Amino acid sequence: MRDLIFKAFAITNEIDLNKIADHCGIPKKFTWEEPLILRGEILKSILLKNVDETQMVLVFSFGSIVFINHSTPNEITALLNYLHSFEPEIDVSGADRYSDDYSLHVKETESIELTDEYVVVPEYESYYPELISTVLAKSVALEKTEEQLGHINDKLETMIDRLEKGKLRIGNKELARTTAKIIRHEYNTLAYIMILDKPDITWTSSTAGDFYDRMHEFFELNDRYKILKSKTEILYNIMDGFSTISHSIRGLFVEWIIVILILFEIVLSLLGIAGLLP
Question: Which residues of 132-239 form beta strands (DSSP E)?
Fold first, then answer.
């Protein structure tokens, strides 16, 4: 068995697998939990060239794609252009912004050896490509989301700087846009990437489950998930503070308007009593 070379990309927030499956003539409805696997004749028809049995592409609904044994950039670009025809928001030229490389080596060894760049196994199992691809796909998707969280933090820092300078008023639209970004971030990370979900094979095979758990732990997916969740909760608390300040200022403004109107009415009454008004 030859080594398997993996290259994972996070290219968008969501990919409709069923549209691609219909176009490829795959009679199956895909759920969020399972990837669309392109290989053999289907992959050949997309790339317009012969492919060997080890070459495949796994497309995940949460916006990641993993290439296995695709060594030439032209093959990767051709596949990305194909996906772009279904998901126009995919930036093909910037696809490698969130990416990772990994490899599977089959050698005579007593136990599985995991490193940052490869995994060594004593014997090849058919579930290795999907399980490794799933972990890589989630890892690069988290990397993408972590950077998006950084952009939200930068926006909040700007708002905090304004508060420190005494500019206390924050518009409803600005609050709504920032809150929407946080909600979108939470949805993309905590709900859509499904860090805590496992591939189906792990429930039917204990060895597959053990291997996936080791990969999952090695790439620290749970820890990164908890950190993102904690940071998201902090963002919500900060936005609650901004919202409270904004509403307090608006309430204070309305109270002053009422006081001014009352004073104005009193002045008019006094002027009327004094005969200064007709």
Answer: none
Write out the two tokens for 26: 């795959």
Mean pLDDT of 8-16: 91
**CA-closest candidate to residue 43, choices 96, 16, 82, 73:** 82
Beta carbons within 8 Å of 43's beta carbon, 6+ residues apart: 51, 55, 56, 57
What pLDDT was estimated at residue 242? 62
Domain boundaries, the chain: 4-126, 132-273
CB crowding 104-143: b at 16 or more within 10 Å, else e: bebeeeeeeeeeeebbbbeeeeebbbbbbbbbbbbbbbbb
Q: In degrees, to the nearest 5, what angle opens at C-alpha 143 toward C-alphas 241 and 120?
A: 145
Read off the pLDDT band of 226 (50, 70, 90): confident
Helix H or strand E encompassing 64: strand 64-68
DSSP single-letter state for residue 189: I
Question: How far apart are alpha carbons 217 and 273 in whole angstroms?
Answer: 83
d(CA 192, CA 32): 8
Three-state secondary structure call for residue 52: coil
Sign of CA dihedral 171, 177, 178, 183: positive
In degrees and rounded to multiples of 5, residue 110 shows phi and psi of -75, -30
C-alpha to C-alpha distance for 119 and 138, rounded to whole angstroms: 17
Report the Cα 44 to chain-centroid distance in Å: 30
Q: How far apart are CA 75 and CA 123, in angstroms?
A: 29
**Cα distances (Å, whole numbers) of residue 53 to 43, 178, 276:** 10, 47, 100
Whole-number Å distance between alpha carbons of 247 and 263 = 24
Comparing 65-69, 216-220, 244-248, the range with the smallest average pLDDT is 244-248
Pairing state between β 36-39 and 113-114: unpaired
Angle at 23 between CA 19 and CA 24, to 5 degrees: 115
Average pLDDT over residues 221-234: 80
